[in-house]
Design a protein that fits this description.
- The chain is mainly alpha-helical.
- The chain is built from 24 helices and no strands.
- The N terminus and C terminus are likely disordered.
- The chain has a domain of 183 residues.
- Helix 14 packs parallel to helix 16.
- The radius of gyration is 23 Å and the shape is globular.
């Protein structure tokens, strides 16, 4: 081995020999390669979806969705390549964030064009990786037939509607809808446009998801255009993030509509100090949009609690926000009645397969799991509120929403990777910290555990056995480690990606010290004193969030 080779193998000499610009270029190329290959694999897998996933669908004679029926992919191959896509996607986003942090400024227009092409391709192929979109189609068809999806299940629809029976997935076919009335309205409109074709109904659902995704990307781009580093970071987290594109566009989950309404509602509040009252028209708009998000999925009521916390000093502003939310929420629940309210409690005590609660608690304790989770979520929310950096002080509502969302997502026992859309849409408007790595790590491991999502395949296959280990061993431990990592960050105060003693990377923009205090500015105290300080008396704490899980 030559001396040049030895220098490039991680020694201190190598760190001095390789110019910083070369490391930035390397990170940029790794980001492009990882993200590009990940998206390519996802598009190809979606194009052959009907050969490796159920339910088998009947494609329309004309128009999307399209499926390449002349080529096939087995469930085992689909699983392995999608695992590879997830790993490449996470690695690409991480490399991109590191490159931007070190001064890289790739062409935003190229990034947006690539994202638009990926979104368009994933939209015109059938939903892959999850059968949830076909459940949405069933609920929409139930409403078209004059029934309530909060009383009638997809299994009933399959027995009454022979044309639809082939496309009703068996995973949730005996469950009524657990989504809000606004989601049901969206599903009804898709069913009206798609007719008796489940494939066409899912296309309309995915098309509206694509529009919502693009709207958020556009608003983010315009909002952050004056700060190139923040703008690129936001696009890496949202617009070109392969895991989000797969979960929200490729799989077609309704969470995207809720996330879009929620983040637009937070942005509608505008820039203001924590002690100033925003204009009432903005407050009304924020209340209406956040109400719409909660009317799609109830967990977005956490954004409403954040809004209440920020407006707590003004009764007039609180009343305006409540009025805006009620105008959106009340009609749907009045129409569907108490069955819609009761349906929201359907998964209160549920536990997802990869939850770390399954590892540490026996089955006899699971009926009380929700109560334990409530206590943990509230405790971590209070801790995070006291210890998380202040963020951008002209947008205090984002920090409040982030505190509540991160506590709920990290510690509630029933979670899926697409739920993290509510967290990623907040991180875009929060300074870069080590929380980014925890969120991306959780998103990656949860996607591995939920991929490929109800495929065809023999149970004894080696890929099935590996998947079993990921779901019941690796993922719970990784998710538990992420929760512990969050608590450690809160107690230690070490939020910054770089240590204070590290030199500033070449080309980096000057920091704004008032936005995010560094770890050096936090008091150096023994660990026991940190715990007592973090969990001690709280003069003002955020509204409790876990009751809406």
């Amino acid at each position: 081995m030559s001396s040049a080779t030895r220098v490039g193998s991680g020694s201190p000499a190598a760190e001095q020999a390789v110019p910083p610009a070369s490391r930035v270029r390397l990170l940029s190329r790794l980001a492009m390669a990882g993200i590009g290959c990940s998206l390519l694999i996802m598009v190809v897998a979606s194009s052959m979806r009907d050969s490796w996933m159920y339910p088998r669908i009947i494609l329309p004679a004309v128009g999307p969705p399209w499926d390449l029926t002349f080529v096939h992919m087995t469930a085992g191959v689909a699983t392995v390549v999608l695992w590879l896509a997830i790993i490449l996607g996470v690695g690409g986003v991480v490399a991109g964030l590191l490159a931007v942090e070190r001064g890289a400024r790739p062409n935003v227009r190229v990034l947006l064009i690539a994202a638009a092409v990926a979104v368009a391709l994933l939209t015109v192929f059938p939903p892959a990786g999850s059968t949830d979109a076909f459940d949405y189609a069933s609920y929409g068809r139930i409403v078209v037939l004059g029934h309530s999806p909060y009383l009638m299940t997809p299994a009933h629809l399959a027995r009454l509607h022979s044309t639809f029976s082939r496309s009703v997935p068996s995973t949730w076919d005996h469950f009524v809808s657990v989504y809000g009335p606004l989601a049901t309205l969206e599903q009804f409109l898709a069913a009206k446009l798609g007719g008796i074709s489940a494939a066409q109904i899912t296309f309309w659902l995915k098309l509206w998801n694509a529009i919502a995704f693009g709207l958020v990307a556009f608003v983010v781009d315009r909002t952050l255009r004056s700060d190139p580093a923040r703008r690129l970071r936001a696009h890496l987290l949202w617009t070109i993030n392969p895991l989000l594109l797969w979960d929200l566009i490729g799989e077609g989950h309704v969470d995207l509509i809720a996330a879009a309404a929620g983040v637009l509602g937070l942005l509608a509040l505008g820039r203001h100090s924590e002690t100033a009252r925003p204009p009432l028209l903005r407050v009304l708009a924020a209340g209406a949009l956040i109400g719409a998000a909660a009317d799609v999925k109830i967990n977005y009521a956490l954004f409403g609690l954040a809004l209440i916390w920020v407006l707590r000093r003004s009764f007039t502003a609180l009343a305006a926000a409540a009025a805006g939310a009620l105008v959106v929420i009340a009609p749907g629940y009045a129409w569907f009645g108490m069955p819609a309210v009761r349906a929201l409690e359907g998964r209160r005590n549920g536990t997802s397969a990869d939850s770390f609660y399954r590892v540490f608690l026996g089955s006899s304790f699971r009926p009380r799991m929700a109560e334990l989770a409530v206590v943990l979520v509230i405790a971590v929310a209070v801790l995070a509120y006291r210890r998380m950096p202040a963020g951008y002080t002209t947008q205090p509502v984002f920090r409040a929403a982030l505190v509540l969302s991160v506590a709920w997502l990290f510690l509630w026992p029933y979670q899926f990777p697409w739920y993290d859309a509510m967290l990623v849409c907040l991180l875009m408007f929060y300074p870069a910290t080590r929380l980014d790595w925890l969120v991306l790590g959780r998103l990656g491991i949860a996607n591995l555990a939920n991929t490929p999502g109800n495929p065809f395949g023999p149970p004894g296959h080696v890929v099935y056995l590996v998947h079993h280990v990921i779901v019941y061993v690796i993922a719970p431990m990784a998710l538990f480690a992420a929760a512990m990592g969050l608590i450690w960050l809160c107690l230690s105060g070490r939020w910054n990606p770089r240590e204070p003693s590290d030199p500033e990377p070449p080309g980096s923009a000057p920091k704004e010290p008032e936005l995010m205090p560094s770890a050096a500015s936090l008091p150096k105290r023994p660990f026991s004193l940190m715990i007592r300080s973090a969990l001690g008396p709280v003069e003002s704490q955020p509204a409790q969030s876990a009751d809406v899980g």
